[in-house]
Design a protein that fits this description.
This protein has 481 residues and is an alpha/beta fold. The chain has helices spanning 39-55, 80-88, 92-109, 125-137, 213-225, 239-254, 285-291, 294-301, 314-338, 350-366, 371-389, 397-414, 429-448, 452-464, and strands at 4-7, 12-15, 23-28, 60-65, 141-144, 147-150, 188-193, 209-211, 229-235, 259-265, 268-270, 273-274, 310-312, 467-472, 475-480. It has three domains: 19-291, HUPs (Rossmann fold), CATH 3.40.50.620; 314-424, Anticodon-binding domain of a subclass of class I aminoacyl-tRNA synthetases (Four Helix Bundle (Hemerythrin (Met), subunit A)), CATH 1.20.120; 428-481, no CATH class.
């Protein structure tokens, strides 16, 4: 296949060619596990879930995504997890483990397939010390008062990812901690000296301390994917300083390009402002899942290209809910008709339309993983499916099975918005569907006995729950709105 990716390193769309034919190595920066994940995290990790799902249609993929449990410092120099541990009066690893489980639960509930390897920073301190020492030996880093800093002036390419060159930067940095120890204000910490009150500390050649945030991703990516690998992903807000520092230290230590393709996800915004905990304008994934099914949240996220921002509002979630409902109602009606359809072909020639839809879907996803276009194609395809299913002529099992297979592969396996026949929706799909069918039978019996008041009561109660009934010559069908 010919897949193109917009490579942030170079700012252009490029044909994707993996290092090893048939195999892709991808590293995505994971979250810092000091609080519950919000919808901004969902935007990043659902987007890369779809990227990996599509790659796996054609390649063997090794997907690595870390969890940051040490070293992500605030502007004051305080570790985020340490601060949370003080607030909660708990041990740092207690905090990290609790929120790691919370994040993993959120991803599972959002139908995000787990990465192949999910390393944690605290479990890879020796690798980070080793890379730090290599950088010192090669003249790219220096020790100062028990801490080690990367010298940005020693790397002539520093700033090439974000286009922020050293000479253009002001003589100050966002993180003011340790400024008096640095040779240049833009130098960043590879290793930090642990003060007496600092709980998270390890032995090193420079004394007791802890690793910097940026070095962890470089060390873990190299350990599991090698010095040079195919794709590096993350959120656009981390392009500087985090991703920029990853590139500098990795390429200085390894003397080869770090990642061949850089993919960065646009932010999730609220009224145009990036959703973040620091601004207080965030909604947790758990809150969103209390109101909407995971497929609906995924549909909302996929309504914008992964590289673009998407703006959150109740209306946007409701629009995604309605759009997803129309697709899934067609899927459910297709599956219902499969139980009673005549064998063989029906002469409608719909197989040609399925082939066209497949080609359109593949073209969209091969064009820099254009999920919004793929979803739009599914919506157009669904209108045609509905016209076919609602027509007067019967539809054969061969056609219905082909439609269902198409939805399962592309809406299910790739986009993750169509559950399979025996997959739960809200964890109770089969049970809910069975109860609705039972109520429909009870309503049919009431009508047969001319008990129209009872018949209307059942219809109205189901309608109040968002289940609409449609009486047709062949029987009553239902849909969720």
């Amino acid at each position: 296949m010919t897949l193109t990716i917009f490579n942030v390193m170079g700012r252009e769309k490029q044909t994707f060619t993996p290092n090893q034919e048939g195999h892709v190595g991808i590293y995505v920066c994971g979250p810092t596990i000091y609080d519950h994940a919000h919808l901004g995290h969902a935007k990043t990790y659902v987007s890369f879930d779809v990227v990996v799902r599509w790659l796996r249609q054609h390649y063997t993929v090794l997907y690595v995504q870390n969890l940051t449990d040490v070293g992500h410092l605030l502007d004051t120099g305080e570790d985020r997890i340490l601060r949370k541990s003080r607030q909660m009066q708990a041990k740092p690893m207690q905090i990290a483990d609790f929120y790691a489980r919370s994040y993993l639960d959120d991803m599972r509930n959002l139908l995000v397939q787990p990465p192949d390897i999910q390393p944690r920073a605290a479990g890879h301190v020796p690798e980070q010390i080793q890379m730090t020492q290599e950088l010192i030996d090669k003249g790219f880093a220096y020790e100062s008062n028990g801490s080690v800093y990367f010298s940005v002036e020693a790397d002539e390419d520093y700033g090439k990812l974000s286009n922020r060159r050293v000479e253009a930067q002001e003589e100050n940095t966002r993180n003011t901690a340790g400024m008096q120890e640095k040779r240049h204000s833009a130098d960043f910490a590879l290793w930090k000296k642990a003060e007496p009150e600092h709980i998270m500390r390890w032995n090193s050649p420079w004394g007791e301390g802890f690793p910097g945030w940026h070095i962890e991703c470089s060390a873990m990516a190299r350990k599991y994917l090698g010095a040079n690998f195919d794709i590096h992903g993350g959120g656009i807000d981390n392009i500087f300083p985090h991703n920029e520092c990853e590139v500098a230290q990795s390429e200085s230590a390894n003397e080869v390009p770090f990642a061949n393709y850089w993919m960065l996800v646009g932010s999730l915004t609220v009224e145009g402002v990036k959703m973040s905990k620091s601004l207080g304008n965030f909604f947790t994934i758990k809150d969103a899942l209390d109101q909407y099914r995971p497929e609906v949240i995924r549909t909302f996220i996929l309504s914008a290209h992964y590289s673009n921002p998407v703006d959150y509002s109740p209306d946007s979630l409701e629009a995604a809910n309605n759009g997803w409902g129309r697709i899934y109602n067609a899927v459910r009606e297709t599956r219902r008709k499969m139980n009673h359809a005549p064998e063989g072909s029906d002469g409608h020639g719909f197989g040609t339309r399925i082939d066209e839809a497949r080609a359109q879907f593949v073209e969209a996803m091969n064009d820099d993983f254009n999920a919004p276009q793929a979803v739009a194609m599914l919506q157009n395809f669904t209108r045609e499916v509905n016209a076919l299913l609602n027509g007067e002529a019967s539809v054969g099992l061969e056609t219905l099975s082909a439609i269902n297979t198409f939805y399962n592969q592309y809406g299910g396996e790739v986009l993750g918005i169509i559950p399979s026949v025996d997959e739960s929706v809200g964890n109770n799909a089969e049970r809910e569907g069975g109860l609705i069918e039972l109520l429909i039978e009870m309503r049919a019996n009431a009508r047969a006995q001319k008990n129209y008041a009872e018949s209307d009561r059942i219809r109205n109660r189901l309608s109040a729950l968002g289940v609409q009934l449609d009486d047709r010559p062949e029987g009553t069908v239902w849909r969720v709105e």
